[in-house]
Amino acid sequence: MGARSGVGAMASAVLERLAGRPDLVVEALGVSWRGRRDLPGVVPGGVGTRATRFPARAAHRMWQHGNWPRFGGFDVVHGPNFVVPPAGGAAELMTIHDIGPWRFPSLVNAHVRAYPRLVDRAIGRGAHVHVPSEFVRREVVEHLGVEPDRVHMIPNGYEISTGGDPSLGKRLAGRPYVLGLGTIDPRKNFAALIDAMGLVWEQIPELGLVIAGGPGLDSVKVQTAIDRIDPQGRVSMVGYVSDHQRNSLLAGAECLAYPSLYEGFGLPPLEAMSYSTPVVAADAGSLPEVCGDAALLVEPSDHEHLAQSIVDVVTDSALATKLVNSGHSQVQQFSWDKATNGLVKLYQTLRV
Q1: Same domain for 94 and 40?
Q2: Are 94 and 122 in contact (CB under 8 A)?
Q3: Is the domain of 170 the same as that of 217?
Q4: Is 144 helix (H, G, I), strand (E, B) or coil?
Q5: What is the average per-residue pLDDT within 332-339?
Q6: Sign of the torsion angle spanned by Cα atoms 16, 19, 23, 29
Q7: DSSP label of 265
């Protein structure tokens, strides 16, 4: 079924833990024409499967207007990626990771632009909402108008990263480097990061910038910024990388710069912290919750402040050590065991 997205990683981590619980009978419901035969091979042992031949996009179109196809025989149906199907009388729960499809419809494809209508339909059927952060909880209540007692905040978990080779990261970069992670989309704010690096280079000219992530809607703008600011070739756009390369880049970086304009959770800062890499992140979205006091937080539109924060982290070893030590503690606050236990308690409440 291809590489897992962040949502896929969340669903997989939770499902693996649900599978081992004696107090639950767990089935994975697949709504897919092409992937229906693959489902038994990708779920953990002990998880049943139920697949339909109905194509997902066709089902989504139907659910925007009615409650068919529907799926009965469950106590609770949890849709981990915004969409929960009509469940024939069972309790319905959907995870809303952020309200990007509502806030930034021009930045998502037509399939994702249908999520608001599907969410409205599910809310009308009485569905509840799971969110990964207090920031998203507020957004769902205030902007989507969902009753507060139907919105349940259970943070995502995190598994401590292992296997990174800092020497490989440095070889990939070819010099000491700042790391940026994410698809090259406008809300990741990489153009502002490149502007900031222009100021960083006035103080640390030997420092590089590596951006690891697939192409997106901001690719042309980012390349234009690179051409304007970096004639010396200190920015490396490495595209998609393997898990080992990603971990190695995290382990070898002088710092992670994560100036995202909008995040519902934001996993890369925790990944960096687990590798003892200090973090400079945006004071936006859920990032203050996720990072706590273990990152320097900056206004994402202030590239001068972003630049100085990067310089401070790279040149001040005492500051870097303080952030690294705080990061080790911060990462411990998030676990998939804790997240799964919270979801199970919610399932039990909803089925009553």
Answers
A1: yes
A2: yes
A3: yes
A4: helix
A5: 96
A6: positive
A7: S
CA 62 to chain centre: 28
Is residue 338 a contact partner of residue 13, using CB atoms and an 8 Å limit?
no
What is the b/e burial string over 137-152, where b = at least 16 CB atoms within 10 angstroms of the residue's CB? bebbbeebebeeeebb
Do residues 29 and 53 both lie within one domain?
yes
The DSSP call for residue 296 is E
Domain identity same for 323 and 186: yes
Asked if 25 and 48 count as a contact pair (C-beta separation under 8 A), the reply is yes
Reported confidence tier of residue 64, pLDDT bands at 50, 70, 90 = very high
Task: Identify any residues that bridge with 297 across adjacent strands, giving them in sequence order.
Answer: 281
pTM over 0.85: yes
Q: Residue 40 sits in a domain of what CATH number?
A: 3.40.50.2000
DSSP assignments along 2-18, one per residue: -S--HHHHHHHHHHHHH
Domain count, the chain: 2
Task: Provide the residue count of the chain.
Answer: 352
Is the separation of the CB atoms in 97 and 7 below 8 Å? yes
Residue 347 lies in a domain: yes
**Contact between 133 and 82 (Cβ < 8 Å):** no
Q: Are residues 306 and 255 in the same domain?
A: yes
pLDDT at 3: 44
Q: In angstroms, rounded to a whole number, what is the distance separating the alpha carbons of residues 1 and 38?
A: 7
Mean pLDDT estimate for the chain: 93
Give the torsion sign (CA, 167, 169, 171, 177).
negative
Examine residue 57 and state whether it is found in any structural domain, yes or no. yes
1 within a domain of the structure (yes/no): no
Residue 76 is predicted with a pLDDT of 97
Q: Which of 38, 142, 151 is nearest to 95 (CA)?
A: 151
Pair 322, 291 in one domain: yes
Instruction: Give the contacts of 249 (CB within 8 A, at least 6 positions apart).
Output: 164, 169, 172, 173, 179, 210, 212, 238, 241
Helix (H, G, I), strand (E, B) or coil at 178: strand
Strands 235-237 and 76-79 turn out to be unpaired
Q: Which domain holds residue 301?
A: 166-331
In a domain, 319, yes or no: yes
